[in-house]
Design a protein that fits this description.
Elements lengths: L1 H18 L4 E4 L4 H14 L3 E7 L7 H11 L4 E6 L1 H8 L5 H24 L3 E3 L4 H8 L23 E3 L7 H10 L4 H4 L19 H20 L8 E5 L4 E6 L2 E14 L7 E2 L4 H14 L3 E6 L13
Parallel strand pairs: 1-2, 1-4, 2-3, 4-5, 8-10
Antiparallel strand pairs: 6-8, 7-8, 8-9
Helix pairs in contact: 1-2, 1-7, 2-7, 9-10
Bound molecules: xanthosine-5'-monophosphate.
Xanthosine-5'-monophosphate binds next to loops.
């Protein structure tokens, strides 16, 4: 407790000293690490901090708005949101290979983000929410990595910052969360589940379209709502809906339907290297299934993923 408080005081003083009257720019993803880094730097230098939030339109329902609300209402900073779902989806058109999709989303993110920085904020300091385990991970090479992750983005050669600020670089995740709580970040954000960089882009299996993203967002929001209502969300390490892109036959009233299948994924794990499928009570699964089918148009069937990791990964792509 006191340790985190003194960490905040010391780090705030250091940032002020290092930055002087210059600007700092930070890429905000809405994840725990970049959010805590943003809150901390905001406390140190207020409006000298600019946070750039690239909203790919691949986040969960209303999440982009929640991030914007949080950082514009609760913290003093320049907050820049770039809405670019259309751009991302046009790049993803016709693409169904998972690694290719990841690569496209990563490259597109890189381009959108750095073009914005280049045109408006390409001087002063650059900040990122690197934490201690990230530095260990990146030293390990790619052997442990099954999928391409692109969270840490390197600075392009033509942009020169005075220095890179990584105020959380010596902290573990639980310490980062403690700092976030102390700084007044919303509980939901501090305790946010892991969310893949490519977002719903890898939870819509196969080609990603605006309509599929919308269906998945609706289904996922219902799942989260039901899990929160029964308190079961706290028992899970991670849970979400997946849209496999499969249509199946069903019956509604007197007519035949041929609509989308939604899959529910929920796991418990300590480290995400291995994971167990979660034994969610049938009543909860039943409620989720009923609500999804009744409330989300174009969905007529829900299945539950009972695969542990290994052999399955947590995400489907
Ligand atoms: P897998 O699917 O590899 O996922 O078992 C393990 C954990 O990593 C998350 N994940 C990602 N996180 N960028 C991230 O930051 C990514 O590209 C990415 N892909 C998967 C996944 O949600 C799970 O928590």
């Amino acid at each position: 407790e006191w340790k985190m408080e003194s960490f905040i005081d010391t780090t705030v003083a250091q940032i002020r000293e290092q930055v002087g009257d210059k600007g700092v720019v930070l890429g905000l993803s809405g994840g725990v690490d970049s959010s805590v880094a943003a809150a901390l730097i905001s406390k140190a230098i207020g409006k000298q901090l600019t946070c750039v939030f690239v909203d790919q339109g691949l986040m969960r329902k209303d999440e982009g708005d929640f991030v914007e609300q949080t950082f514009t209402k609760l913290f003093d900073m320049n907050f820049v949101r770039i809405n670019c779902q259309e751009e991302f989806l046009s790049k993803l058109k016709g693409v169904s290979d998972p690694e290719e999709k990841r690569k496209i989303i990563g490259t597109e993110f890189y381009n959108v983000f750095w073009n914005k920085i280049r045109e408006s904020y390409g001087s002063g300091f650059f900040a990122q929410g690197t934490i201690y385990p990230d530095r260990i991970e990146s030293g390990k090479g790619d052997a442990a990595k099954i999928k391409t992750h692109h969270n840490q983005v390197g600075v392009p050669k033509d942009i020169q910052f005075d220095d890179i600020i990584e105020p959380l670089k010596d902290l573990f995740k639980d310490e980062v969360r403690a700092v976030g709580e102390k700084l007044g970040l919303p509980h939901d954000l501090v305790w946010r589940q892991p969310f893949p960089g490519p977002g719903l882009g890898v939870r819509v299996i196969g080609e990603v379209t605006a309509e599929k993203v919308r269906i998945l967002q609706e289904a996922d929001a219902i799942l989260r709502d039901e899990m929160a209502q029964c308190g079961y969300d706290k028992e899970m390490s991670q849970f979400f809906a997946v849209l496999p892109g499969v249509r199946t036959v069903g019956v509604m009233g007197d007519s035949r339907t041929y609509s989308e299948l939604v899959a529910i994924r929920a796991v418990t794990t300590d480290d995400f290297m291995t994971a167990d499928w979660a034994k969610i009570p049938y009543e909860i699964l039943g409620r989720v299934s009923n609500r999804i089918i009744n409330e989300v148009s174009h969905v007529n069937r829900v299945v539950y993923d009972i695969t542990s990791k290994p052999p399955g990964t947590v995400e489907w792509e």
